[in-house]
Structures
1.
Amino acid sequence: MNYTIDLSLKPTTFDLWHVCLAGTVVVLALILMTVLLSVLFAMLRCKKSQAKKSAQPQTSIPEPIVKIVEKIVEVEKIVEVEKLVPAPIPEPVILKEATPDAALQLLGLLQKEARFIDFIQEDIASYSDVDVGVAARVVHEGCKKAVHEHFTLSPIRTELEGNKVTLPAGFDAAAVRLTGNIVGSAPFTGTLVHKGWQVTDVRLAKLTQTHNANIVAAAEVEL
């Protein structure tokens, strides 16, 4: 069974489907017109704002550039002042020339009174602790005699060892040595571990020009 469709025929009825299709076309046309009008107005506004900006005179310098110029001028002024005022010359460090004569003289006194050099030069590994203890007692007594005869010693700190002490700001770092956890700045509070010693008087004999201080113990020959 064959059906023939005549394309030249015109619709004679206007049903619901055609109504929806026509409404959709109208809505799309309105949306398109609205978008085109919005784009046109935006372009007009941009052209007006650009025309206003170009009409204003560009005479003012931006603030960042002004600040940079001011800083450059300040640096140049500081450099000019430094050139005019000479830098202070640091004071030269004067080192004390230490002569070995006094140290050699003391070493000779310890040898004379306590046989100090003989003791430290001896190999004591083969001796018993009792023998070493007896010899150390003799050396101790002789060294104590020599030191007390030619030097006066006094403690740096008068507090008892083990007591708490407080070191104020500006304390003599050469006289007091800090140990342990050193954090921050003075004043410091800690435990006195050692009271320290300082020499308050020296009574070494004056040496003649011909005396050889390098000879701390003369060789002995028995006839």
2.
Amino acid sequence: MHQMKTLLTLAFLVFGYGISAQNIDFNTKKGFVVEGFDVVSYFNNTPEKGKDKFVSTYKGGTFKFASQSHLEAFNKNPEMYIPQYGGYCAYAIAAKGEKVSIDPETYEIRDGKLYLFYNSWGINTLKSWLDESPEALKLKADKNWKHIDKH
């Protein structure tokens, strides 16, 4: 009986750890991923703010949507729509390995993925991203994010 209890406890701890390890360190400024902008709308090239009545959670992040159809699209395939690097500035993740807030209307869809950027005080990191080398920066950001997301 004691062995069974120990085994069940161990299974619970391993399973419980697996669940928490799956969460993403999302940028939740203003309480929502992408400051409450509808992540599906970016793929229509019309970023818009989500509404309080269309909300979903995924991997520890809360998302807002502009319509029921966008909410349903997200729920069917969230991995298609979630922003890269938790919704932090892609350029800052690549160049500095740092989590920097974004301007939700400064973005790029690249290879079917959503990348967001800082754009304030005369600094537009999307411009830097495009001027330097998006593919090389993406590789750096992917590598840096693996380390950042674990902390």
